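Whether sequence alone determines local backbone shape is best considered at the level of individual chains. In the encoding step, the backbone of a single protein was reduced to a row of integers, each denoting a local shape. For completeness, the protein is quoted in full, as a sequence line and a line of structure tokens.
***
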Amino acid sequence: MRLSTYRLLAALALAAVGATAWAAESIRIGSVVSATGSASIIGDPQMKTLQMYVDSINRKGGVLGRRLELVAYDDASDVGKANSFTKRLIDNDRVDVIIGGSMSGAAMSMIPLVEQAEVPFITMAGAISIVEPAKKWVFKTSLTDRIVAEMVFRDMRKRGISKIALLSENSGYGQSGKTQSELVASKYGIDIVSKETYGATDVDTTPQLTRIKQNPQVQGIFVFGAGQGPAVVTRNFRQLGMTRPLYQSYAVCSNDFIKLTGAAADGTLLPCTAMLVADDLPDSNPQKAVVAGYATAYRGLWKSGVSHFGGCAFDALMLYLDAVKRAGTTDKAKVRDAIEATKGMVLTAGTYNMTSTDHMGLDVNAYPMLVIRNGGWKLAD
């Protein structure tokens, strides 16, 4: 269906836990993600992750002796629908928390509603404006676009790249990423000598890439976009025979990106969670058990590869449930305070340390740099 409602209701939960006697009413986990539409490679694994872990946790007895109930809507990659479904979650479904906003535009449309209703909101979208300045009821589990830009520029500097082309999408994420890239480029000795923009639904970016190819100053290309657009750029990049280093943001950190681009993706560099290279991590890495456990569970149930996006949903759910346990209640204000007090929590994106002014809790060292080689993911040299 183009517009779908997913619910893990009592029948599913009770079938999973058998004769468990649930205490009190369920804990209602609300969600709005882009499970279909142009951003489906982001939202689909998020929806599946939430479904999988709500079911798994219920089989183990729930939280505080209470069953989890997932009330989730697919906004079909439509910002207007994300807004209307958020209203429904607040006014009709009366959820205890909202996890969602696959894309930055969707998340931004949801923020005024959750702030007014005073409902904890944990989003997986990237734009820095989501959490800077900090908003009382809003948290996020993916790195900001500013940190993504810094990680890319740091790697470029290491490789002797100083003059680049920036190709950004006309979406909220792409334009925020463009702004943040421009703000931090000089910090890393990067000079943006070419700037181009493409549309989120464009099926050809050859004209923009041709102009970049013809600029002799360009030593590397940085693409800031999400959804299917970056795949179009990557295919066109190879079709034009371009050989200068190609960087993407973490918004392509999914096996679906490789499926969409095939051999064209080979050599692409990007910052991404350690989950995609879990087997390459040393046993001493505190993230290894977390990312390997998630990857094993996801692949086992859904028979497909893992992605950064599903990991963001996992992190959001775990941050919320950990706060509920520490607060000993689902009282929204107390849980909000507990989320803000999160310290040293190791999840798929890194180690979260929240404060009253930092509602993301991750820094520029959270992700490793990865490279796509022979249709797979490797730690970049």
